[in-house]
Amino acid sequence: MQTDKPVRLILDDGTIFDGRSFGAETAAAGEVVFSTAMVGYPESLTDPSYIGQILTVTFPLVGNYGVPEDSFTNGISDFFESEKIQISGLIISDYSHEYSHWNAKKSLGEWLKEHNVPGIYGIDTRELTKILREKGSMKGKIVFGDENEIDFLDPNIENQVAKASCKEVITYGTGAKKVVMVDCGVKHNIIRCLLKRDITLIRVPWDYDFNQIEFDGLFISNGPGNPDFCETTVQNIRKAMETGKPICGICMGNQLLSKAGGATVYKLKYGHRSHNQPVRLANSERCFITSQNHGFAVSNASLGEDWEPLFTNLNDGTNEGIRHKTKPFFSAQFHPEAASGPTDTDFIFDMFFDKL
Description:
Layout: E1 6-11, E2 16-21, E3 28-35, H1 41-45, E4 53-57, E5 61-62, E6 72-73, E7 76-77, E8 89-91, E9 94-95, H2 108-114, E10 119-121, H3 125-135, E11 138-143, H4 160-164, E12 170-172, E13 177-183, H5 188-195, E14 199-205, E15 217-220, H6 231-241, E16 247-250, H7 252-260, E17 265-281, E18 287-298, E19 307-309, E20 311-313, E21 321-324, E22 329-332, H8 347-355
Parallel strand pairs: 3-4, 4-8, 5-9, 8-10, 13-14, 13-15, 15-16, 16-22
Antiparallel strand pairs: 1-2, 1-11, 2-10, 3-11, 6-7, 12-14, 17-18, 17-20, 19-21, 21-22
Helix pairs in contact: 6-7
InterPro entries: Anth_synth/Amidotransfase, CarbamoylP_synth_ssu, CarbamoylP_synth_ssu_N, CarbP_synth_ssu_N_sf, Class_I_gatase-like, CPSase_GATase1, GATASE
Family: Belongs to the CarA family.
Domain Carbamoyl-phosphate synthase small subunit N-terminal: 5-143
């Protein structure tokens, strides 16, 4: 019989959920968000776009296939999307204390404890998600004792990209084409997908002046938080646009390229976090099911006359990518590299490589 410690989730509107602990017994605070993905928790928990957030998984059973080992090849994780768990806390309905998978080396609970991240099970995640859909993403905290054990925290008023980005220039591969990748909190599968093409990849920090480097193309990665903190990156992108060299962005990269082109961004009510977001390619009836993780979106109305939407979300009509009408600049708000999720849009990387 399990005797896991009682723990509470407190939302900033005063709502309290009681559950049981299966992770680290430490208080945590952040923005409470939800994902409707059914699988892929090892990838999701290590996605840097979740920095500062407490993740609610709506699928009821979590943990049944455990967690693979922490192994790296040439500085890139073999199974995860970064070097560590990035979420501030995990909220689920039913935790599988027993796990079974050919690649599993430990349980989800053991992994959370290793990284000092709390996890709660026994929560009515349907009710919690209904609250978040009605009121929008909310501040929340996980406490084991007094409710004042930790203060509420709003990650959107801090520069999360600076926390997620690499601190030095890192080079991968020896391909014929040289690509600079601005690391705003890159998922490792983006690196893997790029290195499958014939390129040399130069990964630079978010505020690095990459225009001093000779390159054939610029790639802007995903990342966490509010893009308005990345004005230095936006200015560097604008300089790169003057060269006319190909530019591709993913997720945060879509927002920063849009800002460099003069557009504005806004915060979504509860964001897009799932494996099942439908998007449509502009001027076509081609639709794709995509993996997504973002809380901000580009305002289509603010796009200049030289730009146009490239993809549109079929659920709510929001922007899912942009392209320049005459120059080789384009981006996607969703994740073509998946990890986890569908790989239907992997052709985005081929589109970029073909322009180099």
